[in-house]
């Protein structure tokens, strides 16, 4: 008969609780303090209504002592929190860093052997008033050595200050390190199976990602034998785990795959068919540095190629017309062309990297956002609309810019400064477009460390600027540039057409977000912008200067348009989650509805779109909203779920991250009882109809 170590674990845990007062008294009499002391700190002492603030419990175990992960394993107790919060403040789920293993006499513990931090996001409602904000919590945890365990607790409090929306917020830089040790969301959903007392888990992971002694920490208790060995094998782009099962009964589990020191990937897994296939993985199959280097190299290459292909997208072409005018003016002048190309590249790379940095910062603060997040804000769209309209009128010859000091002058100036701001504008308006290679590259920024992720965003900018760098530094291409001449004025006026087409597209997008009534009011302010420019151009023709007055009037008109925009509640009411009158009707996407359809063995096509995503709209017109597709889906009884990301939606943002996407589009097909198929970003009718035919 073999001894069941689970019985010993229960006895030890019971003994720790029964003798807790005596043990705690003995330890405290000896040193007067906790063995794993906790310090409660806030990322910022000042917080604004309607925003989040992250609280960290910094745990500093004494030598030989350790604390426990949220699932402690065979023995131990995770950390608990009993909050006392003011009205309007809510606490989120605790976020634990990637743990270590501790095996003692056949009992597996999931622990922290050194200093660690547990993070909790506090959310303030808009109703919280400025002033002191007292936060209190009673927390309990278990502290252990290899020989003794002591339940410990502490009552901690901190007083934050609620400030106005315009107040400056200073963040504690230590939180960057705390978050770096948190597991990162894995792109796609895994699957698991339990047969013949064996637990198998299939994890989607690119074959090029090397691993440093992988280990799976499961959140759900009673499913696997914690102390049993974990065997891994590689099967293409999947990592297969096999270990001893302990129980059954769940259709979904979650956990963390540790891939290196303080590095892990969190994911969920649903029940399915999993076979132990592939090549067995050895512990020495790759160090962490090689893992990161391989992923960074592949993602950087995808970002550069994806940025290059963005030049073919309709959302970028109008801005490229400005650069084309600059090249036409320069003719074949080598020095001028090279100077302008480098300045243009600097503007593109700076804005692409800055947008990436803001995106990473928002994610780190707990916000669920993705690529092109800025175009989910109608205020930014209105400013961009005014800017593009002004540039269009300038190209058409309504006015000239030497004496006007507002935004679009920057993109129209001659020389390096004009090229820089043209590049900046090109990068800003390129974000709605998503082309081939971009999805995987931007999705990798979810997993990579922040510095490596910024390199990916910079690579996207380099790819976008690459054609002009080639023109500048390849003489054979540069020699074909036309010489300046009278034709240039006509060319410039022709380039106003794509600018005005862009304005029309932005007007349509703004209307989709704020509704037709509010759009009418916004267009009044846009008309005011046009009248101011017309008035200024008339003065120029008479030889007078109204630059300062025009600048002030323009600022007032744009600010008026921003103020006239409706509030969040009114805009949310305009969001169209589904359209029953469409050629291919759909339901609003939700994970609950997806699970319900899959449980009923119904095939599901889920697609994620946004009104500002040109690629999304092109796919809908060319492939999704087509009679052939609708007929094929109806014949196969395919349910269609549509996720509308035009306005911010944290649930959709989190779902996109789970599938390795930083933005839209994303197309998924769920055949009954099978894992989802991620479809290409450029769809055709044949792609969809053949997929349904194969499934049938």
UniProtKB/TrEMBL annotation:
- Which CDD domains does the record match to this protein? DsbDgamma
Q: Which residues form the signal peptide?
A: 1-25
From the Swiss-Prot or TrEMBL record, state where the protein is found.
Cell membrane
- The Thioredoxin domain sits at 564-696
Assign the protein's first listed, main location to one coarse class: membrane
User: Record's InterPro entries?
Assistant: Cyt_c_assmbl_TM_dom, DsbD_gamma, DsbDN, Thioredoxin-like_sf, Thioredoxin_domain
Name the domain of life. Bacteria
For this entry, the protein name equals: Thioredoxin family protein
Q: How does it sit in the membrane?
A: Multi-pass membrane protein
Keyword annotations for this protein?
Cell membrane, Cytochrome c-type biogenesis, Membrane, Signal, Transmembrane, Transmembrane helix
PROSITE patterns noted in UniProt: THIOREDOXIN_2
